[in-house]
Amino acid sequence: MRRQLPIPMAADSKSWQWYAVSGALAAVLLVCAVLALRTWPSRSTEPAQTAQVAQPEPTVPSQEQQPQVEIAKLAPPLALAPGLVLRGGGPTDRPNPDQLAPAFSAYEKSDYPVAADHFDLLAKQFPRAEVPVLYLGVTQLLMHDDQAALTSLTRASQLATGETKDAAAWYLAIAAVRMRNPEAAGLLHDLCRRPKSAYAEQACVLEAKH
Length: 210
Known about the structure:
about 210 residues, Serine Threonine Protein Phosphatase 5, Tetratricopeptide repeat
C-alpha cells in the first residue's frame, strides 16, 4: 500500500500570502512616511509665520514728541565782515573776522554741519566770546540738535551783551520749548514783556501757544 506524501504547495501558498500582506503594509507605511515628510516643513513654519504676523511693529521715536518750532536764521553781525580788523588787531579773547569767516561762509550756505564744527572750535579757543557759541547754538537748532543747542545757548546768554543778548534769549527760549524744558515758559514770558526786544512779539505769540 502506497503512503501519500504531503503536498508542499499549501505551505508555499500561505507563505506567499503572508509576504504579500507584509509587503502591502510596508508600502502603505512608506507612503504615509513620505507624505508626512512632505508636509512637515510647511507645518513647522506655520507657528513662526503666525508669530511673525502677530508681532507688533517696532515703535520709532517720533519728532512729534518734541514741539518743532521753526526759526529764522540769525543774520551774521555786520561788524564782523572779513577785513574790518586791520592794524592793531582786536581783543585777544575774541576771534577776529578773518577767523570767523570760514564758519560764517558755511553758515550762510546752509552747510550747517561744517558751520557747527567751525563755531564749536572757535568757542573752545575763545571761551569768553559770545559770538561763536551763540551761532553754534543757532546752527544746532537749525540742524534740530536741540539738546546741544540748549547747552550752547545757555552759555551764550550768560556771555552775551546788547543785541547778542536779546538774540541769545530768543533762541534759548526756542531750544527750551523744543526740549519741553520747564524754564521755557519763564523765558518766553520775560522776553514777551521786554519792551525793547526785537523778539518780544514772537515770544508773546509762542507763549500763547505753549
